[in-house]
Amino acid sequence: MEDALRSVALPLVRFAAFGANALLFGLLPVLLLVVRPGLAGLGTRPPGGRRRLAARLEGFVQAALWGSAAATVLALTLQAVLVSQFASDGDLSQESLLSVFETSFGQWYGLRLPLLLGLAVLLSGRVRSASLAGAGDGRRGPGAGWWAAWGGLGVLLLATSSFSGHAAVANPRLLSLVNDVVHLVAGATWFAGIVVLSVALPEVWRAGSPEDRLDVMRATIVRFSNLALVSIGVVLVTGVVNSFLHIGAPDDLIATSYGRALGAKLVLFALILVLGAVNHLVVRRRLERGPADGRDAPRIFRRTIAAELVVALAIMAVTGLLTGLARTREDSPPPPPDDAVTSGPPRT
C-alpha cells in the first residue's frame, strides 16, 4: 500500500494541484496581456462571444478552486496515511493527521486552504461579470486593486509548492526559492494561455462569420505568441538554474529516478519549443499578413495548440512525479521535501 501511495496516488494528487493552481494564477496575465487587449479592438463582435467566453472563464476558475482544494486535502490525508503506516496499529488517526502539520510540507499545504478561500471570495461570480468588462464594450472594468489581489493570492498559492518542495532545501536557499517561484509563475502563464486559446477562445467566434474568426485569432494569437515566447524563455532559464541546484552530477540524469524524470521533462519541453515555433513563425506571421495568407492559419493552429495542451499536461504530470523523488544533490539533510514521510514519522 505504501508503494502505491508514493508511486501513484501522490504524483496524481500533485499533478492535479499543479494544474489547478497554475490555472488560477495564469488566467490573470493571460486576461490582462492577451484576451482583454485583443477583444478591445473588436467592439461587440462577434455577437454573444464575450458572454460565452466570460462564462467559460468562470467555469475554469470554479473548477480550479474546487480541484486545488480537493487535491490539497487529499494530499494531506495521504501523508497522514503514510505516517500511520509507521504507527503500531497502522490506522489513520488524529495523531497522524496532526503530525503531518508539524512538518514544513503540512504547514505550507495547509496554507493553501485559506488562500483558496480568499480567491473564492474574490473571484466567484466576478470573473463572469467583470473579467472582460471595459475591454471595448463600453462598461467600466474592475479596479487595479481587484487585479492586484488576484495576482498576490495567486503567486502565494504557487509559492506553497516552492516552500514545501525541493527549492526549500537547496543552497543557496534564497536563490533557489526565488528562482522556483519565477519558474512557476512563467510556467503557469504559458499553461493558462494554452488552455484559454484551445478551449475557451473558440466560444468567442462560434456564432461569428469567418472574418470574425480571423479577426479574433489575429487579435489574440499574435499577442499570446509574444507572451509565450517570454514565458518559455523564463521557464528555460530558471529550469537550467533548477537543474544545477538539484542535480549532483551529469550521470544522475541516467542513473537516478530523479534524473530520468527530469530528462523526460526536458524532452517534453523540447516538443513544446517545436510546437511554439510553428505557432510563432508560421501561424502568427500568416495572420499578420492578412486574410489571403491567414485562411489556413485556423486549421494549423487547432492542431498545434491541441498538441501543446497534451504536452503541457504531460509536463505537469512529470512535475508531480519529480517533486516526490529525492534530488541527487544533497546540500542539507532533510528528506525529500514534497514527501513528508520517507522511512519514519515526519520531521520538522
**Estimated helix fraction:** over 70%
N to C succession of SSEs: HHHHHHHHHHHHH
Average pLDDT works out at 82
Count of β-strands: 0
**Percent range for β-strand residues:** under 5%
Q: Compute the CA-based radius of gyration.
A: 21 Å
Please report the number of helical segments.
Answer: 13
Instruction: List unreliable stretches of 5+ residues.
Output: 332-348
Which structural class is indicated by helix and strand composition?
mainly alpha
* Largest sheet, strands/sense/barrel: none
Q: End-to-end span in angstroms?
A: 25 Å
Q: In one word, what is the shape?
A: globular
How would you describe this structure to a colleague?
The structure is a single chain. Helices cover 76% and strands 0% of the residues. It contains 13 helices and no strands. The chain has helices at residues 2-40, 49-85, 94-100, 104-123, 126-130, 144-163, 173-200, 202-205, 210-246, 252-255, 257-289, 291-294, 297-322. The chain is globular and about 60 Å long. The chain starts with a helix and ends in a 26-residue tail after the last helix.
